[in-house]
Amino acid sequence: MSDSAREDHRAFLNRYYGVSRRIYDLTRRYFLLGREAAIAHLVEEQWETLIEVGPGTGRNLRKLKNKRPNASYGGVEASDAMLEHAKIKVPFARMVHGFAETADMTSILGKAPDRILFAYCLSMVQEPLAALEHCRRQLAPGGEVVVVDFGDLSGWPSIPREYFRSFLDTFHVRPLPSSELESLAFWHTHGRGQYWSMFRFSPLEP
Ligand SMILES: C[S@@+](CC[C@H](N)C(=O)[O-])C[C@H]1O[C@@H](n2cnc3c(N)ncnc32)[C@H](O)[C@@H]1O
User: Fold this and answer.
1) Which of 16, 22, 84, 124, when mutated, tests ligand 1's pocket best, judged by the most ligand atoms within 8 Å of its CB?
2) Which residue minimizes the CA distance to atom 10 of ligand 1?
3) At residue 105, what are phi and psi to the nearest 5 degrees?
4) pTM, two decimal places
5) For residue 56, how far is its CA from the centre of ligand 1 (angstroms)?
6) C-beta neighbour count of 133 within 10 angstroms
7) Which domains does the chain have, with CATH numbers?
8) Atom of ligand 1 nearest to the CA of 76
9) 16 — pLDDT class (breaks 50, 70, 90)
């Protein structure tokens, strides 16, 4: 991926979220499903450091901090507009600008993170499989990448599925290739109709 393609993505995100960031949480709560399941899973486990990639307004980090106040939190965000907003909303987290495919996850909290969370971010990333591999290589031993996002909608009738897919495409969102991710994950589950999917991935050799 060229630097200019990445900068185009950044410019798109800044235009998009520059306008919508203030109403983002209110408008997304009814259709970014599965995030509560991912948070419930995370708080059941033992970890000390977590980085969210594409934290947006920091909504998930705030929820996690409420339940696990002693953990250390970080975020990597490609949109300058969202990053500026999130820095105010999650002052407890170390937030940096970066891209999922290239960010140095080990420098954010001073060590390799125990958990890396992608919540409705991987479907916006230009090279999702490369980003996933990049993050798995930077996990602490015994760590996990947790992904929750739009599924492949395979339980939907074809006309509404294609309509919804083209609606998402206008916002540069491409539902995840579920079967490919299933083959890489050590655990997965899906919401009704495969509207949403959640995957857990183990570390790869750095
Ligand atoms: C749909 S929002 C989800 C926000 C948040 N995770 C949530 O659950 O509300 C996707 C976020 O990912 C960010 N994003 C998109 N592409 C990215 C990339 N390549 N690297 C890092 N962040 C990215 C966007 O700027 C946005 O903040």
Assistant:
1) 124
2) 121
3) -75, -20
4) 0.95
5) 5
6) 15
7) 3-201 (3.40.50.150)
8) 21
9) confident
